[in-house]
Amino acid sequence: MDDLINQNLVHYGTNDGTAVVSTLRDYKTEPYSKMYDHMVEYDTLMPNTSAAVERVRRSYGKSEGKYKPYLE
């Protein structure tokens, strides 16, 4: 997890309003607070899974190649 939170190349996120978001937001210790701050800074708290998938599709252009199986 340290590798993930100590980089800014991969912009990870989750659906907003979930227990995961509440946990990350409410725990004031690392790594939780740092993960939550990253998702707020890079606007990766998504309203739903469909919006998240669409964002990933746009970020990689067409959903061809190695990411296609995960985006179908």
Entry summary:
With 72 residues, the protein is mainly alpha-helical. It contains 5 helices and 2 strands, in the order αβααβαα.
What would your notes on this structure say?
- The protein is mainly alpha-helical.
- It has a single domain, classed as Periplasmic binding protein-like II (D-Maltodextrin-Binding Protein, domain 2, 3-Layer(aba) Sandwich).
- Helix 2 packs across helix 3.
- It is flat.
- The model has no long low-confidence stretch (mean pLDDT 85).
Quick tags:
single chain; 72 residues; mainly alpha; D-Maltodextrin-Binding Protein, domain 2; two-stranded parallel sheet; 2 strands
Give the SSE layout:
Blueprint: H1 2-5, E1 14-15, H2 19-26, H3 32-41, E2 45-46, H4 49-59, H5 68-71
Number of discrete domains: 1
Assembly form of the protein: single chain
Helicity level, as a percent range?
A: 40-55%
Instruction: Just give the CATH class.
Output: Alpha Beta
Would you give the CATH topology? Answer: D-Maltodextrin-Binding Protein, domain 2
* Spatial sequence of strands, sheet with the most strands: 1-2
